[in-house]
UniProtKB/TrEMBL annotation:
Residues 1-50 are annotated as: Disordered. Keywords: Amino-acid transport, Membrane, Transmembrane, Transmembrane helix, Transport, Vacuole. Its main location: membrane. It is found in: Vacuole membrane. This is Transmembrane amino acid transporter protein-domain-containing protein. The chain crosses the membrane at residues 49-71, 77-102, 123-145, 168-189, 201-221, 274-296, 308-330, 377-394, 400-422, 434-459.
Amino acid sequence: MAQTYGATPAIVAEEREPGLQPSQSDESDALLGAEASARRPKRDGHGTLTSSVGNLANTIIGSGMLTFPLAMASAGIIPGIITCIFSGSVAAFGLYLLTLCATKAPHRRASFFAVAELTFPRAAVFFDAAIAVKCFGVSISYLIIVKSLMPNVVAAMYHDLSHHDPPAWAQSGRVWITILMGILFPLSFMRKIDSLRHTSYIALFSVAYLVVVVISCYFFPLEGTQAPGEIHLIHFTPNFVSTFPVQVFAYTCAQNIFPIFNEISSNTQPRMNIVIGSSIGSAALIYEIIAIFGYLTFGSKVGANIIAMYPSTSLFIAIGQLAIAILVMFSYPLQVHPCRNCLDKVFHMGHLVKTPEGEEVEDEHGGSPDMSHLKHILLTIAIVACGFSIAFFVDDLQMVLSFVGSTGSTTISFILPGLFYWKLSHTDPTASKTLSRAALALAVYGMCVFVFCLSFNIYQVVRPSQSVPH
């Protein structure tokens, strides 16, 4: 049976957005006195602003940024800048709505499942199942990318440093993902997303190096760089249809906003706004820099992977390719974490347990205050083993992942945030009607993007010869 978390007196967060209805905990505390809360002290998080921004930014920024110059070439510099900022702003609004909804969930136990129990309880398990599939699909795509990148990186390094061909084993992508799983496997077992902050910092340094590569190669072109094509301020081409969704989904990170909300110290709305603004803002700035300088370097001749456009004979570029592999590799655990948590909810089917005080609660890891070690280990092994097996034997899942990614990303970034907040606020006379309508508009926008991407993917399946590069 659906539980109304807002009625649980001891574990509802004290800080709320003024527009939402207060929970019954306030009435209970008023009746029972201050001792009611004192008996059950609320736990605080240990994450910092820096680690929270780092993890969320690493979740956002991925290999999709290499496609932004092509996106700019499909519309021109001015529309490219505008669509990039627009996509980031819409994604930030979705994250903002999710943090407002998180204050209605049990104290530091916010999740898509907990919020869905308050809004659409019968669909809560299905939402988590969809999110788990989406994160699992993205994690597989990361392994496939690393599998395809590493042989090229090694070949370029050998050529630049020793002028010899690398050994046969070093040219096998399967060997490399097997080796790198030795690093990723233990990282995937981290219970707290804050524990992944150091790998996120390394990944973001890799992003900074790629930015340096793109800027440097514009001002100081490498020998062998092809001459640029035409450059336009405004020039829409048919490719815009396929590149605009790339910009929309380049900001997807909603799957990790609730764990960050649960773990950051003093998770007030202003602090969460800083996390969201800093993460989305830094991602948008990086995307704009790579798009503008990449487009100015190659013009209309730019390809879907800007790094692949530069001469691979340069060690400078070879290190850049290695940076992409590092970025993607350390983004992998950030997909396993939400996938595991969502699967825990699915298998637990939303059952609640009782605390020593007799209260029913559900924490961020599932249906019990602490996910058992056995359950945590089994779920992690299942996710990593299945993902590794698929990536090991399959070289291209682009079409399948495009369906999973486009539909899943649209749902968690736009449709659910809009519907969740609208459901919680539209009947509240004290809530902001403007914000409630904007939330509903976000959900409608998400549905439109969902239909468009699904239709476009189907069209690519039916007419593959007409598909445009991503």
